[in-house]
Design brief:
With 186 residues, the protein is an all-alpha fold. 79% of the residues lie in helices and 0% in strands. The longest helix has 32 residues. The radius of gyration is 18 Å and the shape is globular.
Amino acid sequence: MEQWTNDTVNRTVMALVQQLTKDWTKTKVHSEILEIFMKMRMETKTEEEYVSLLLTNVAFATESSFALNKIFELILLNKQFPPAEAVQAWVTDAHEKIEQQLPTLRDMYQKHFSGEENMKRKLEISYCPVLLSNRIKTDFIFAFIHEQNQPMMKDFFHADPKAVLEALHHISGFFASMILEGIELI
């Protein structure tokens, strides 16, 4: 098979993400997201602690998104399907590294969000789509490497890895935004 065009990549990633999220309902996703926010509120005693935890979670989720992109890039560049256990180990390792870097990352994200008029609201609005987009990316990567899907997914190895990564990033973000549309945060 010859190299895929960016259009082919975009259409294929879109179709696969649609398939992965077809059973997701707005009500269920909104409920899960609100539950996450309620847990954070219950874990904290003050509004200041809540904003601090939210900042930590935004930093962790955003850095996790970068890590998922790197993991998928590695798979695409190696043009091989690693076992799910290996991918899970990479994700776990990435999360551990992010945890170790959180103090520095928090400072960086604090600087980024500190000029915001309503920092809490901005963090809440930022956290939701990244969290959901990460879930889509994770599901996509594990579906991509699944043994039953490999005959179809191997065609992605003929595409430009950057185009595939960009498509997954944008399409997962788009789907996250569409699913989250109309969510009422606490």
